[in-house]
Structures are given as structure tokens and as C-alpha cells.
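Interim report, section 4.2 (structural modelling).
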Amino acid sequence: MISYELIGITVLWLFLYGYLIVASIDFGAGFFAYYARLTKQDHLINRLISRYLSPVWEITNVFFVFFLVGIIGFFPDTAYYYGSSLLVPGSIAVILLAIRGSFYAFENYGSKESIVYLFLYGATGLLIPASLSVALTLSEGGFITEQSGVVSLAYLKLFTSPLSWSIVVLAIVSVLFISGSFLTFYASRAADQSALKLLRNYALFWSTPTIIAALTAFIYLSQHNERHFQNMMDLWWLLALSVGFFMLALWLLYSGRRYGLAFICVMLQFFCAFFAYGIGHYPYILDPFITIQEGATQESMGIALVIAFIGGLCLLIPSLVLVFKLFLFDADYVKGKK
Amino acid sequence: MEIDTVLWSRLVTGLTLTFHVIFATVGVSVPLMIAIAEFVGIRKKDPHYILMAKRWTRGFIISVAVGVVTGTAIAMQLALVWPNFMKLAGNVVALPLFMEVFAFFFEAIFLGIYLYTWDRFRNPYLHWLLTIPIVAGAGMSAFFITTVNGFMNQPGGFMLEAGHFAAVNPIAAMLNTATPSKVFHVLTSAYLTGAALLAGIAAYTMLRKGATAYYKKSLKLMMGAMLVFGLLTTIAGDVSAKFLAEHQPEKLAAAEWHFETESGADLIFLGWLNAEREVIGALHLPKALSFLAFGNFNAEVKGLNEFPPDEHPPLLVHYLFDFMVSIGFVLLAVSVLYFLFVLWKKRNEYNRWLLGAIAACAPLAFLGVELGWFYAEVGRQPWIIRGYMRVEEAATSSPNVMPLFFVFLLLYIVLGVLCAVVLRRLFRNNPAEAEYERYMQSRNEQQPEAGERT
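Predicted structure of the assembly:
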């Protein structure tokens, strides 16, 4: 029998992965929409983007809150350490999310198109992943100090660390790559050739920086946290799989067919890398303050959370399937006929 | 006055919640009103009501956006501003928090579907069925989050061992003694506020542009809802007062400026306190407090002096309580008056004065909700978990809280103004009658086409 805290962290990691994918699509779409406007190609893709994003923007946000509430629930110590040290970066992320979420709805259901809004939409799409990735950097240890009960963040160290910057770059370019490959797939479903061509270029363009940034972050990680690096090296086969899926996705995108499969490959690429990173982190959640075993909540609460989680999934999965059927795989809807 | 980080922490949280509660109330109540309107429309085959549901949904989605982002802000602020509280209480309240997000997830999914499938089902009831998970999800998330607040007032379901919560029973913590009365009061008053909002909009439009069939129907439907939920809210308020008298006597005593324990206690309305803490200029209702608290005019009510001075809630809560209760009765009275006018043929229910009063009910209802929450929260001071953790032990030690208050204040001002501007733009140049014309026209055009589809 697996312990409840391991189930907990696995579930949470899955949710973070889910958020990574759906939020990347959303954030990247914002940037592409803005960039297309600047290069006067917005008429090609904007309708396509809003057609997919309108029904799902709220769901994306809930994924995030879900992870947040889940990790505090399973591991209350995270609230103490991350909460105390992340007051400023966390609040910045909240404000960016607030601007993005509300402006998105205002634009879509209310106001007229404006370049200011589009700029905010595009800029927050890149700044949010950057600000959220700070939490990942902190988990590597060395940036948080605790002195006589006061937890604080070593800002100077954080801002001068090559590791933190490489993670930020990785977050941004991955967002653009994931988003580009999804929207390529979506455009091909909609049989929208001009959008397809443009988005395929975006996806191909951002693939190279993604793999370079991943390597760079990996190298800096080896210098910063030897233990984590070694653990990941032991999982070399997962990393190799990730690179394999990346090559496959790239080949499919390049040869211009089976875009659905290409996007699945991208998802698997990030899945393997993300889990190799996560498993390598074990047993720490926040090096060296929180471990999975010691930081976990009471057993009764942990079990209750796992049960609630299973019950919740029984409701959510059919509903999500319904959403996908109605908006993603309904060819008529995608093409704009409904 | 020197403001320390604890007070700044309280201000940041208070600010976010004050702003959020407006949109949360709309988020809980308006789906029910939409569901009612669509059901009546399908039932009566009256397109006016369908249009009503459509227009309300369109406005609703804008407020949902603000509700979602401020809700996310609270989820994060709980950990960011109150790290010690979450570390301790997270062990006990994680379950309802988690389930709240589930309920919200559920609502979000179906709201998205509802919004984009108006004309996709042949059977109109199928589309209406989508409102059920939305209404249920909204109600459930209100339920779960209110249990967390209930826990902070009436902690239970754990043992305290060396400063840590042990032997946690999550269900017992969720179903604490405060939960039933709180949930009842929160839901009924939210539905009352939603009804008052929509009735107020109808009344306001009729005042400005004259009564039309659409607005007459809308007003009548919502006044009915206001009457029903007004009555239920009155009952809920009474249940809550009796709960306080039994379980949190210091909160009720502070609200009533009831210092000495006595039998047959008076209910005090308004007034002020002099330096010796004597009540001046207040309206005394003899023995009414005993009746309110225990249903018996001669029951003994505990006074505030029975409690140690450092556990007294601020005495200001008296006014919050009085105004909240007054607003509740005003809303009820206006809805009763409206139906008296409807029944009494000689009177015109579209009388300008009455319409004006109904229009005023909308902001009043929101004010009532705010005052009620202020009373509930400020009345719990100095505790964050009553009896276990004081507010100053829970706050963050970071000095950066102060600038954040102003940043968030600015954010909420921008969001609030933009929300109002967008809502205005949505409806101002698109009156219901014009939309009704277009709607009927497009329906007639679609009719043959709809028959072809299989």
C-alpha cells in the first residue's frame, strides 16, 4: 500500500502538469495574438484562438487554484515557508492573473478590441509563467533563510543566480512551444490553412530555444543542487524518452501531417521531463525545510483528501470529456459553424 | 497612529474579501435566478423569459470573471498573508477548501458549456438542465467555504497537543456547530441579494424608460424571489442570533452593548456610548434581546463583562449589526408592499415611489451583505481561530505587506471601474426590446432550418 502522502504528491504533480499544459496554451495564445497584431497577421488567427479559449479560460484558472489548495492541504508547511517568502512574487503573480483573467472576459464578452488590452494580454502571458517559475527555483534550496522564526527570501541571491534565470527562460519558451503546437493542431482541425501555416512556423521556431533552455537549466541545476541532478541522471531513460518525443514531434510538425499526434508527442515530452524532475526532487518539497514524509498533514486528513479527490474526479472527468467533445473535437464548432 | 504589519495584514485581507464578496454573492445567487427565468420561459413558451435568462447570463459572466480572479487572490493570500494560520489550521480545514475548489471546477465547466450551447440542443429542457450543476456548484462552494469560516468561529474535530492539532477528524471540523446557521444565513441572504439586484435593475430601467412587457415580467418574477428569500433570511437571521447566544455569547453581547448579565434583557437599537460605557440615546425594546436570543422574554443573557477584557470584540460592531438587520427588514417590507399593491387593484404597483424604493433595494442588499460579514468577522476579534490562535500570531512577519495593500487597492479600483464600464456598454445601447425584436426575427428565420437538422 502506497502511503497517502505519496499519492498526494503524485496527484498534485499531475495537476501541476495539467496546469502547465492548459495554461501554456492560454499564455502562449496571448503572446501570439499580440505578435500577430504587430505583424498585421492577426486576422488569420484571432478568431481561432478566441473560439477555443472562450469556453475554457475559467477551467484553466481552476487548475491552478486546485494545485495551490491541494499542496497546502496535503503539506501545510508549504504554506508557512512558501507563504512567508513568496509574499511579493506571489502577489505579483496574483495581480498579473487578475489582470489577465478579467481583461480576457471583458474583451470577449464586453468591450471592443483595443491594442492596450492586447498588449496586456500578451505581456501577462509571458510574465505569469516567469513569476510562477520562481516557486520552482526556490524549491531547489538556498534562497530561503530562516532566522529566529522569521522566514525570508534572499532576493539578491535569487536575482543573480543563473539557475533562476535559466528556469525563467525555460518557462517562457516552453509556453510558446506548447501553445504553438496545440494551436497548429487546432487550426488543422478547423481546416484553416492560413492560420495553420502561421502557427506551424511559430511552433517550429520555438522548438529550438525550448531544447536549448532545457539543457541550460539542467546544467545550472547540476551546479546548484548536486543531489537533485544525480537523482535525475539515474532517471536518464525518462529524459531520453522526453528527447525522443521531442524529436518525433518536431519531425511530424516539419513534415506537416498528423498534427494531433505531434501535439500528443509534445505533451509526452513535457510529461517525461516534468516527472523526471519531480521524482528526482524526492524526498524534498522544499530543500532542506520540507520533506514529503515530515511535511505531510495528519493521516486522517490525508486519507479524507484522497477520498475527496477520487470522488471529485468521478464528477470532473466526465464533465471535461463533455467539454472536449463539444468544443475541441466537434469539427463543426471548431470551424465556426456552431 | 502607528500601523503594524498585523493591522496591514488584516487590511489587505479585509480589502480583498470586501471586494470579493460582492462578486461572490452575485456568483452564488444569479445562476439560480437565471435557471428560474429559463425554466419559466420554456414552461410558458414565453420568449421574454428566455431573453431574460440570456441577458442576465451575459452580465453574469462579466462579474464571474472578477469573482474568479479575486477568489484566486484570496486562495493565495491565505498562505501569503497568514502563513502561520495555514500551517496550523491547514491540517483541519484542507478538506472543505479542497472540495470548494471541486465545486467551483464543476460550476466553471458547466458555465462554459451553458454559455456556448444556447442553440445546440433541440430539446430546450436539455439546455436548461445545464443550469442545475451551475446552481448546485455555486451553492456547494458557498457551503464548503462557509464551513471553513464556521470552523474559525467554532473550532472542533481535533485535539490540541503541544501546539499542534492532532487526532484530526475532518468531517467533524467541517460540520462544526456554527456551520448550519451560517450556511443557511449565507445562502438565503445571497439569493435575496441576487433577487434584489435584478429587481432593482428592472425597476430602475422602468423609472427611466417606462414600463415594458419585458421589465414588468422581470420585476414580478424577481419580487417573488425577493419575498421568498426575504422571509427565509429573516428566519436564518433569527436562527443565527440564537446560535450566537448559545455558543458565542461575547459576539452577541458586543453587538447589543449588553454588558451586565441579566434576565429579561432589552434590545438596544442605535445610540452611542459615553466614556463610562453607558448607552445614551438608544431605542430600548424591553426584554426583546432575551426573546431574540432564547425565544423567552425572561431568559438570562450573558453580558460582556463576564469575559476577560482582552477577549472583547470591538464595540463598533453594534452599528454593523443594527444596520444589517434594518436592511433585511426594509427589503422584506418593500417586497411585501409590492405584492400588496399587486393584489389591491386600486393601487398601481408601477408607482414611481415604489419603483424608486425597489431600485434602492439593490445597493442596500449588497450593503447588508457587507455589513453582515463585517459583523461576523470583526465580532470574532481578537481570535483568528476562536479560543486557539490570536490574529497577531497568525500574520506574516514580512514588512512588505503595507505597499501590497495599496497595490491591491489600486487593482480592485481598476477592476471595479472596468467591470462597471463593460456592463454599461453591454446593455446601454442594446435595450431588451430591441434585442427581443432581433431575437424573434432570427427565431423565425431559423425555424425551417432547425426542422431539417437531425
